[in-house]
Specification:
440 residues, alpha/beta, Spore Coat Polysaccharide Biosynthesis Protein SpsA, Chain A, eight-stranded mixed beta sheet, 12% strand, globular, transferase, membrane, glycosyltransferase, glycosyltransferase activity, Nucleotide-diphossugar_trans
Length: 440
């Protein structure tokens, strides 16, 4: 009997995927608008028609469009195979740290456990620690029989530390790693494999950062799903369209010369966001590698969460000021960076209209929150379902197990935006009034 030839998967060009996703998303939004006519009319009687449209647009139309675009993109996404799964080239890891005495030894242990076949140069930049971070790092390295280079940077600011560290880099590629972030044993290998398998105009690849301390409390359980589904899905979408918007400092790889070419990390609270957008503005591309997994500790209290996410929101505004979407050379990155102009609008509407509307609905006043607002949920669940299946396959490849965390998932799906929107608005306020920056 003749062996049946394996059918090759149908190749869909990125540009076609982009427009197919747009077509579906616009169709979904038009359908939503059609169904919402009675809602708009009833709300207009209270607030006037323009205000009603402003509110419903931020609650339903725009989020529905973005969710639909995400769903089709995730369905069409196919991660290309590695050209070389076991790269054998030197790589440097920069760890900028401040008062990380409790975590740094563990971080070094996980670097030591990497299955990478070539030299890993570890450069630790102590950015004005008042504890014994550097001493503990050197002691841990000696116990692990690994060499690390410790340097000191007294100027406060993560960007100062990283720019000091890159002066010591001798390899073509460098990885930035947060001092409290632990690497999966294959993380460095997969991250290097992706960047050397990518086209030559790819200058950075973001790793996949997941939550390590998810069992700590309900706050961390909710964030586990944000990292596992929310952030990962956005990065997959952006990676497909060759414009991952944040090669996050917590765990990403860069071409050393590319970073030097744009004068290193900028003086910004979101230095990794601004750096990435500068890459994109030069016509370079930034990818995402879901198999390069690292685990980080997330905030355990609402206060710490507010500090972190408001800083992220503030970093996005900084990036918009320094790198305008219309200055981006590619249509994909024009679109992806342009979406960030919409985020403050949605966060403001959610904070000042949806949340009060939710309270009113509890007393039987369904002016803003009612049955029509539930129309966004089906696409949300579909997108999470698609990504969950994909992430499960990633975990299988890495011999990891997806933890059952139903309470966190339910709260993430139904309530997470209630916390995120006001926190983001606070970040926009901080940047508008130029409030004091803080790294930690």
């Amino acid at each position: 009997m003749r062996k049946q030839r394996k059918k090759k998967p149908i190749y869909i060009p990125v540009q076609l995927k982009f427009w197919l996703s747009h077509g579906f998303a616009i169709g979904w939004m038009l359908f939503s608008i059609y169904l919402s006519f009675p809602w708009v009319q009833s709300l207009a009687e209270i607030f006037t028609f323009p205000i009603a449209l402003f509110i419903i647009g931020g609650i339903a139309y725009v989020p529905g469009y973005l969710n639909a675009f995400l769903v089709i993109t995730l369905i069409l996404d196919r991660q290309p195979a590695f050209k070389q799964k076991w790269p054998d080239i030197p790589v440097s890891i920069l760890i900028a740290c401040r008062n990380e005495a409790d975590t740094i030894a563990n971080t070094l242990q996980y670097i030591k456990n990497q299955d990478y076949r070539s030299l890993i140069q570890v450069i630790l930049i102590d950015n004005g620690s008042t504890d014994n971070t550097a001493e503990i790092a050197l002691e841990a390295a000696q116990n692990l029989d690994m060499h690390i280079h410790v340097i000191h940077e007294s100027k406060p600011g993560k960007f100062h530390a990283l720019n000091r560290g890159i002066q010591e880099v001798t390899s073509d590629f460098l990885i930035t790693l947060d001092a409290d972030t632990l690497l999966h044993s294959k993380a460095v290998r997969y991250l290097v494999a992706r960047i050397i398998s990518a086209p030559t105009d790819v200058c950075a690849v973001a790793g996949s950062v997941l939550v390590r301390n998810s069992r700590y409390n309900l706050m961390t359980k909710i964030q586990e799903w944000d990292y596992f589904l929310g952030i990962a899905s956005i990065k997959r979408l952006q990676g497909l369209y060759q414009g991952t918007l944040v090669a996050q400092g917590a765990f990403s790889i860069y071409k050393t010369e590319a970073v030097k070419d744009i004068d290193g990390w900028p003086d910004a609270i979101g230095e990794d966001i601004v750096l990435t957008w500068k890459f994109l503005r030069k016509g370079w591309k930034v990818f995402f590698e879901p198999l390069a997994v690292a685990f980080t500790d997330v905030p355990t209290s609402v206060g710490d969460f507010t500090k972190q996410r408001s800083r992220w929101a503030r970093g996005m505004v900084e990036a918009l000021k320094l790198s305008k979407p219309w200055e981006q050379p590619q249509i994909y990155t024009k679109y992806l960076t342009g979406i960030n102009f919409i985020m403050p609008y949605m966060d403001v509407v959610y904070t000042f209209f949806w949340l009060p509307g939710l309270i009113l609905s509890l007393f039987g006043y369904f002016w803003i929150v009612g049955p029509m607002t539930l129309f966004v949920l089906p696409l949300t669940f579909i997108s999470y379902g698609i990504l969950y299946r994909y992430q499960k396959s990633v975990f299988k490849e890495l011999n990891l197990r997806v933890r059952k965390n139903m309470s966190g998932f339910i709260l993430f799906t139904l309530c997470y935006q209630m916390l995120m929107a006001p926190v983001s608005v606070w970040g926009y306020v901080q940047e508008t009034f130029k409030l004091k920056r803080k790294w930690k």
